[in-house]
Amino acid sequence: MAQVRTDFTKVAAPPALSGIDVTPHRIDLFKYLMICMVVFTIVSVFHVWSRFKLVDLNLQISEISRQLSEAGQEQKRLKLEAASLKSPSRIEAIAKNELGMALPTEQQIIHVK
C-alpha cells in the first residue's frame, strides 16, 4: 500500500482563549450545584423525618384509642358489678347466712320520741 500523505495545514485549530479565564465560572457553577445538593438533601431528610413522625404518631393514636376502648369496657363491667353488689337481696342473704343476723322482733325494737 502506498503511503498517503495528509496535509494538516488546512485543519482548523481551536481559537485561542484570549484572556478569558474559565476557572471562575466553573467554581461558581460548582458552588451553585453544591448548594443545591445540600438544600435538596436537607429537604429530603426533613421529608423522610416528617413521614416517619406521622406514622409514629398514628401508631400512638391507635394504641391510645384501643386503651380508651378497653377502659370504657372495664368501666361498664365495674358499674354492673357495683350495681349487683349493692342489691338489697344480696346484702340480706349475706347478713343472714354469713353473719348470722336476723330481722329484729317486736321486743327488740325501741321507739325513740
Describe the overall structure.
The protein has 2 helices and no strands. It is rod-shaped and about 150 Å long. With 113 residues, it is mainly alpha-helical.
Could you outline the blueprint of secondary structure elements for this entry?
Elements: H1 23-85, H2 88-97
What are the main properties of this structure?
113 residues; mainly alpha; 2 helices; 0% strand
Report the helical percentage. Answer: 55-70%
Radius of gyration: 47 Å
The helix/strand series, from N terminus to C terminus, equals HH
Overall strand count? 0
**How many distinct helices?**
2
Q: Tell me, briefly, the overall form.
A: rod-shaped
Detail the poorly predicted runs.
none
Distance between the termini: 151 Å
Mean pLDDT: 87
Largest sheet: none
Strand proportion, as a percent range, falls in: under 5%
Summarize it.
This protein is mostly helical and 113 residues long. Among the domains are: 31 residues; 32 residues.
